[in-house]
Amino acid sequence: MLRPSHLSVVDMHAHYVAPDLIHEAERHGTDYGVSIMRDADGRARLAFADGTVLRPFFHELCDLSVRVFGMDAAGIGLQVVSTWTDMAGDQIPPAQGARWSRLQNETLAADAAKSGDRFAAMGTLPLQDVSLALAELDHMARNLGIRSVEIGTNINGRDLDHPDFRPLWKRLCDLDMLVLLHPPFKPVGEGRNGDYFLNNLISFPVDTTIAAARLMFSGILDDLPWLKICLAHAGGFLPYQIGRMDRGFAAHPACSRSLGTAPSRLLDRFFYDTLTHDDAALAFLVTQVGAERVVYGSDYPFEMLDPTGPERVRRLGLGTAQEDAVLGGTIRDLLSAADAPLAEGEG
């Protein structure tokens, strides 16, 4: 999957929706628990049965070829593309939700495969039913060659340390699957985050912080030391408030009930994308967790993409080995390590 390229940078946080998925949803949406609406300008919009209607799809989101010129200019040889989180479909009834996840994964994988070595698909799961999520995870790994998966930082308000999710974390670990934790369509703070784009600016990083903290304090990271989890948006507030969590661990029994070590000792159990939008914050992140735990991500093609691109990393003045790790070496190793085919009956 990860063939050599003269373009060395890997963008591991970017989003894509296949045109074939939109066409299928428009024709047979009831099979998936969705429908396609058209606005006055004829632009397609995804709608769910609960009344949620997403903003219109747009060209940059739905065309891989349009992004290649910018990738070439930035030295990006590989972009790992995941679904638009808003359309993951966690609220869809389970049977339809499973079909919706399968459609997203198969269209992502098909379009990535057509691109040669420029794009790799990151899967999605029907997390409203863990048994269905496990089945889709196996299908992705065995049949689609997908070796990374995007998971929301909460699932319909249910946190990721919920006992129902334990088999999923175990299976992800067994499959050596890279997980990108990404905030969902409805992050924490609903009711107070509707103005000023605060749902994205503040609630997204808060939701990521909650998810990471619960994975630490619940003992899941201790129980499954080989889990490979990347936190979107540079870890939310986690790397910058880890001292507060250590103080809680030392001072309050609730923090040490399931965790046997200070949270700061688990900080480098996660990977973090570079999306700080600030050189000093990114430099601090590298200092906190090590360059080998930081991976380049752009958030293409949404408003909150980093227009500075890989140049922000290069401005930090890291050594060659550290810079190469952030800009591509680490993520290539992570995906390649998981790229060996599964033996029949393995896992």
Automatic annotation (TrEMBL):
**Where's the Amidohydrolase-related domain?**
89-335
Keyword set for this entry? Lyase
Q: Which GO terms describe its cellular component?
A: cytoplasm
Q: Which SUPFAM superfamilies does this one have? A: Metallo-dependent hydrolases
Protein's recorded name? Amidohydrolase
Mitochondrion is among the record's keywords: no
Q: Name one Pfam family in it.
A: Amidohydro_2
Q: Indicate the secretion signal residues.
A: none
Which BP terms does GO give this entry?
secondary metabolic process
Which source organism?
Answer: Xanthobacter dioxanivorans
Please, which domain of life does this record's source organism belong to? Bacteria
Q: Keyword Secreted, does the record have it?
A: no
* Any GO MF annotation of the entry: hydrolase activity
